[in-house]
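> call design_seq(struct)
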C-alpha cells in the first residue's frame, strides 16, 4: 500500500514538472505592457530621482521604489531575508597636499594632483629622484633595468611610447597607470611622480569608489603617487615634449638627478553605503539552480549647473523591463506554472562608475555561480539606434554574447525569438574587432569573467542623447521596449525550465 502511494505521489510530481515544462508562456509575457513600462519608467526617470548617481539620495529613492514593487509582486527577498545587497563606497579627499622642489612650491590641482589610491598620510623628503622613461615593466621590457630605486622617488612619463604594443587588455596592460605604480612599488620606490600633459580633475579624484577590504588592511603600505605637469617641469628647465623626444621609443638607461623634493599628504576618508536590489521567484524541482536577469538602475546624476541626467533609456528602460519580467514570472508561479529553476531579478548600482554593483555581486555571490545557468542582462532597450540606417529600425535588438561561453545560447535565443517575437537579432557587437568593446562595458561581463554564460540586450544608442540630460521618458519607444522585454522573458522562460544547466563549452576571449 505504501509503495503504491509513493508511486502515485511521484507520478503527480512528474506530471507537475512536465506541466511546468510545457506551460504556455504567452499569457504571462503579455502582462509586460507598454502602459506598465511607461508607468514605472516615469517614476524611475523622474526629476525626484535626480539622475540616480551612485551614491545619492535619488539612487536610494529608486532602490526603495524597486524594493516596494518586488514586495508587491510577491517576490522573495534575495539576500537572507533582505531585498538589498549593500556594499560600501569611500572617497579619499585630500585635506593637506604639498609638493616642493628646492625653493619652488607647487599648487594642488594646478601643477600637481594625487593619484586616486593613496596612503592615509605621508611626509617624505628626497635629495634625488630616478627617471625611468615610461616606467613600463613586462616580459619583454624593463624600464628599471640596472638601477636600484629602493626608498627613492621615481619619475616616469604617463602613457606609452609610439609603437609600443601589449597583448594584455587595458586593465592588465603594463601601461595602465595603476600597474605602473604597482611595479614601482615592487621595485621598492617610496613615491612616484607621473609626468602628464593633463592632470585629473579634482572632481574625478573626489569621487566615491568601492571599498576594497584587502586594500584597507594594506592601505598604509600604498606609496604616494602624484601627477605633475609642465608647470613643474619648466621650473626644472624641461618641457614634456623635450622629455618625450629624449626618451623616444626605446628603453633608456634610468637617470638619477639631484633635487630637494618635499612631499606631504593627508587624507580625509568619507564612506557611503549603496545597494543592489535582488528579488527571487523560487523554482520548483530545480530551485537550487539559478538564472539571473539584470539591469543597472543608476545613472550619472546631476551636473554642477543643476541639469538632471534622467537616464530614461540608460538604464531606466532595462530597469523597468526587469521589474515587469519579475512580475510576470511571479504571476506564473502563483498560477502554478512557475519556473523550475529559481530566477534572481537583480538591479545593480554603480554601473556608470565602473560596473561596481555587478562586480561586488560576482566577487561576493549570494548563490553559487557554478549553479547559475546564465545571466540575461539589459542595458538600454528603449530607443532606436540613430546610426542604424536600415528598414528594420522598429523591429530589431542588438544581442551580445551569443557565440561566447556556451553553444546553447544562440539556439535558445533564436528558437524563442522565431516562435514568439520575431525581432531582427543583430550580432554586430560580437565582432572581435568591435571598436566599442561593448561585451566588456555592462554588468553581464562580471558574470562572464566568472564563467557564467551571458546574453546582453541593447538598442545601440551610443549617439544622440547618450549620457545627456535629454535622455528622457518622452524619447522612449514603448511598443519596441515591450517587445524586446518580452523576448528576454521568453528566453528566460526556456532557460529556467530546461532539463540541464547551459553548457560552458566555449572560451571567453579576454
Amino acid at each position: 500500500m505504501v509503495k503504491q502511494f509513493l508511486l502515485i505521489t511521484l507520478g503527480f510530481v512528474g506530471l507537475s514538472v512536465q506541466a511546468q515544462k510545457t506551460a504556455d508562456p504567452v499569457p504571462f509575457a503579455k502582462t509586460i505592457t507598454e502602459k506598465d513600462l511607461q508607468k514605472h519608467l516615469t517614476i524611475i526617470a523622474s526629476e525626484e530621482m535626480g539622475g540616480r548617481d551612485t551614491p545619492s539620495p535619488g539612487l536610494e529613492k529608486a532602490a526603495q521604489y524597486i524594493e516596494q514593487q518586488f514586495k508587491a509582486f510577491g517576490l522573495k527577498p534575495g539576500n537572507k531575508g533582505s531585498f538589498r545587497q549593500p556594499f560600501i563606497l569611500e572617497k579619499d579627499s585630500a585635506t593637506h597636499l604639498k609638493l616642493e622642489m628646492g625653493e619652488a612650491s607647487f599648487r594642488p590641482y594646478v601643477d600637481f594632483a594625487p593619484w586616486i589610491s593613496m596612503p592615509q598620510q605621508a611626509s617624505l623628503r628626497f635629495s634625488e629622484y630616478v627617471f625611468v622613461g615610461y616606467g613600463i615593466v613586462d616580459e619583454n621590457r624593463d624600464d628599471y633595468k640596472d638601477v636600484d630605486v629602493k626608498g627613492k622617488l621615481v619619475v616616469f612619463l604617463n602613457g606609452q611610447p609610439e609603437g609600443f604594443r601589449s597583448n594584455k587588455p587595458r586593465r592588465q596592460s603594463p601601461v595602465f597607470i595603476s600597474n605602473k605604480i604597482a611595479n614601482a612599488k615592487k621595485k621598492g620606490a617610496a613615491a612616484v611622480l607621473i609626468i602628464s600633459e593633463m592632470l585629473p580633475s579634482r572632481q574625478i579624484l573626489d569621487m566615491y569608489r568601492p571599498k576594497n577590504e584587502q586594500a584597507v588592511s594594506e592601505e598604509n603600505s600604498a606609496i604616494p603617487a602624484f601627477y605633475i605637469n609642465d608647470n613643474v617641469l619648466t621650473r626644472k628647465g624641461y618641457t614634456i615634449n623635450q622629455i618625450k623626444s629624449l626618451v623616444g621609443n626605446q628603453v633608456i638607461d634610468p637617470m638619477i638627478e639631484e633635487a630637494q623634493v618635499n612631499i606631504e599628504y593627508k587624507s580625509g576618508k568619507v564612506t557611503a553605503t549603496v545597494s543592489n536590489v535582488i528579488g527571487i521567484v523560487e523554482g520548483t524541482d530545480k530551485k537550487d539552480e539559478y538564472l539571473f536577469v539584470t539591469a543597472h538602475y543608476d545613472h550619472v546624476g546631476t551636473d554642477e549647473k543643476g541639469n538632471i541626467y534622467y537616464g530614461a533609456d540608460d538604464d531606466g528602460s532595462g530597469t523597468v523591463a526587469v521589474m515587469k519580467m519579475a512580475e510576470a514570472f511571479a504571476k506564473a508561479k502563483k498560477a502554478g506554472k512557475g519556473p523550475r529553476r529559481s530566477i534572481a531579478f537583480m538591479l545593480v548600482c554603480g554601473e556608470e562608475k565602473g560596473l561596481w554593483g555587478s562586480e561586488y555581486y560576482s566577487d561576493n555571490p549570494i548563490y553559487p555561480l557554478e549553479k547559475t545557468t546564465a545571466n540575461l542582462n539589459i542595458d538600454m532597450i528603449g530607443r532606436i539606434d540613430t546610426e542604424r540606417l536600415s528598414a528594420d529600425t522598429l523591429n530589431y535588438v542588438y544581442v551580445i554574447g551569443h557565440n561566447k561561453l556556451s553553444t546553447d545560447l544562440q539556439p535558445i535565443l533564436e528558437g524563442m525569438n522565431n516562435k514568439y517575437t520575431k525581432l531582427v537579432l543583430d550580432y554586430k557587437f560580437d565582432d572581435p574587432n568591435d571598436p566599442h568593446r561593448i561585451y566588456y562595458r555592462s554588468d553581464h561581463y562580471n558574470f562572464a569573467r566568472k564563467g557564467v554564460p551571458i546574453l546582453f540586450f541593447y538598442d545601440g544608442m551610443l549617439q544622440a542623447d547618450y549620457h545627456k540630460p535629454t535622455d528622457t521618458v518622452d524619447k522612449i519607444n514603448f511598443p519596441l521596449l515591450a517587445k524586446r522585454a518580452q523576448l528576454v522573458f521568453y528566453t528566460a522562460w526556456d532557460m529556467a525550465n530546461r532539463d540541464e544547466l547551459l553548457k560552458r563549452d566555449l572560451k571567453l576571449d579576454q
